[in-house]
Amino acid sequence: MHTTAPTTIGRETELGLFRRVLTGLQDRAGHTVLLVGEAGIGKSRLAGECAGQAESLGLPVLRGRGSPTSAGMPYRPLIEALNSRFRVTGVPQDPELEPYRPALGRVIPEWRHTAVPGYPESAVELAEAVLRLLAVLGRDRGCLLVLEDLHEADSETIAVVDYLVDNLAGLPVLLAATLRPEPGAALELARGAERRRVASLATLEPLGAPQVGALAAGCLDLRAEQVPAAVVERLSTLSNGNPYLVEELLAEMVGSGVLRRDGGGWRVTGDLAAAVPVSVVSGLRQRLAQLDPQVRDLLLLAATLGTRFSIGTLELITGHSVRLLLDQLAAAAASGFVVPDPTAVDQYAFRHALTAEALLAGLPPAERAVIARRAAEAVLAADPAVSDDRCQLVARLRLLGGDEAGAALLYAEAGRRALAGGASATAVRLLERARGLAAPADRTAVTESLVHATAENGQLDRALALAQSLPDAGADALDIERRVALHTRLAWAAVISERAADTLAQVAAARAQLGDPSDPRHTAALAVVEAHLALLPAHGAETAETERLAREAAEVAEREKLPVVACQAWQLLALLARERGFDDADACLERMLAVAEEHSLPVWRVEALLRLGANAFLRSGDARRIREARDAARDLGALALAQHAEGLLAMDAVQRADFPAAQEIIDRCLEPSARMRNLGGHRYLLLVAATLAAHQGRRRQMERELLRFDQADESTSFLMPVLLGLCRAFCALLEENRTQALAELAAAAAWEDQHPNMFYLSGRYGLGPLLAVVGGTADRAAYTAALAAPAAALAWNRQFLVLTDAVLLGREGRGREAAGLVDRARQEFRGFPTGRHLGLRLVAEAALADGWGEPVAWLRTAEEYFHQAGVRSVAGACRSLIRQAGVPVAQRRTGRELIPEGLRSVGVTPREFDVFALLVERLGNQDVAQRLSISPRTVEKHIASLLHKTGSANRAELCRLARALCGD
Description:
Strand content: under 5%
Helix content: 55-70%
Distance between the termini: 70 Å
Radius of gyration: 36 Å
């Protein structure tokens, strides 16, 4: 007979689902299928069928699984899944994956050398990298990722899977996962995915009697009707429809001789009720007893190691040769106990998790403990330091051997290692387990580690409660140094979470422990916390006092070799120094960079480079250092930091009028930043997208992007001045709506008065003063005040301030000097073509009125630029001003290619189309005339012509047609 049925029985619905999804991958209809069911119900069989279907279609298949011994090893199922593919094909060399290699180095051994030591990438960053990898693998036909026993996976893997489930739509990827219906993170993930309708949840039900009969027939090589009815009835009753139990019980019937082959069929030769064991455990023990003693001992040892085990571990414990072990495992496989693990070359697995559990359950407790203790001692003798992949294994063996205290120490060590590697969720789980097992003498140290892990994992309330539970005195109490360090860590977590009361309480608790004189290492770290506390809303601390605390902390931290504290302090000092100017801020950042590089702190190095790059870009328009920071972030695998840098580069491209470059960055980074929940980076990219539209005079597109910006987060944003000034006000000026532009700039200034910030692109120190001076509402005193602000050093602002000075000089009768400043601005700020030409249009208006310079030449230059850019309102205003100067200007009759074919065919002219396009916004004749610098009467004539040519019954119908044809 067959140990297992050759075909899958009773799962036609699930198999059909897999077929449909696999076929749909050609249309990039990615999906997740989650198979939920009790042990032995057939989840793995279905997953294997799905893999077989995918392979028959030529799709790449990646398979991994969770296990009890790997639950504390971050990303182990993913590592196995990727390795199952790449050990055959080699790692992909697609250049699209280049930015993701450092992050993927965590799960792809061949790329581990690209990872930068000291940077624990987040689960979200790794998840995005895995998503991009799967998309590349499935680019041609699709690909399948199978993850079995998700209920036994580590917390980090669960986080990655959760991310994948939410983001597979539109990608040629099928994720198939199996899990038991046990309370835990995996089941919560499955139910949440089903509620969000991003996955299909298939709960596998027990087989009915006819299906049990079909399963037995497959094992016995019979037709279903040939299986003795008594056998089917007995199997159904005892197995409760569980396929694994059906197969095991059937094997026991045959093995005990009560079911015998009879010619072409089988017949019952004894009492089924008497022959079939009460439990599968008894049956397995009987089959085990029939094996060679060495094979039997090997299987019992393997069962103590878990459902999966490696040949290397067996070799280490037994001292047997690999050849002998392979022979013994072959015998065990022939008896239906184990199978080669398809996810790893040197791994074997019990045919089912229940098999290992049943073998252990059949051992007397004393015998089980002896086997486990001997195995643990053998591993420790060969690997005294207990390598990472064996630490939890030995902890499990200690626990099976009855040594709870020893197991606790090993689980605690595994937790500390996980925390050091950035896997804080796994660290919390391991340390919680260690705390529950620890001896009283060890509980304090384990709890201390657990406090650090929970704080790192964002569970501040839990961390505070654990810290409160630590003894204050006695032999088990922490020494003063460790207690101060603990309170300081909690204070830092609290201040980052903007919880001022908890911060103050932890700082006070730490200071209460300090002696006199206090240790400068502790006082420096606390001073940094207190300095950051001063920046929290409504805390009310003086900036000078905050800066004093931070500077003292930086000096002490460097002297005492506390590089992280030093970087924290210098970063804060750079932020505070921007109020005085960029030179001081850059000096602090350069010091932060030097400390980070000297002490090999890659994250702090990228943070310093980013801030230095942003300052350099703002001051000079030079984005080279931002590119350096982006490349450093990519090398690090820090995808969120890289997205931040990309956002700055996109804004730089908008200001340089390199609109295609800005759009390329937005298209490439906007969706990943949303998937990663990188809220700051995502909102900034949305603002860049809106600013990109604004700087092309595309109001409707700008408004759509700003709506997305608002929907991304309803909180008040420090980007509001940029939104109002660089975006909305600039767009209004490109529409020749100066009244609205001034209102937007005033709103930006009012917001800044209520929310002081250091983001200096609101127009307050550049475009605003120019408009005020041109409009006659500001004088040289206002200009001088703006010039004295640190923001006046920014290149974007400086171009407008130079022109503001020119307008003032012209009015003061110093026309030659004024014209010289205009020439200087035209040369010095060539990197900002849209801003420069808008400035020329504004300054020419003042020059015409005050009689200085070459306003007509400036207007012709600006008109040519804006005509080519398709910004008709400004181009029209320039032509109108040229005519006011008494200089003839040729009409622009080009642009017919911009008119939709349907309108061209009825004779709509370019000027009529200019009017038609503005009807999208349902503007009145006066507003259209202002935008196009023509008279309302001319607009009225064009409207009448458009009504006639388009056959529109009235203006409302004409507006609807405009929205249909020119909605963007």
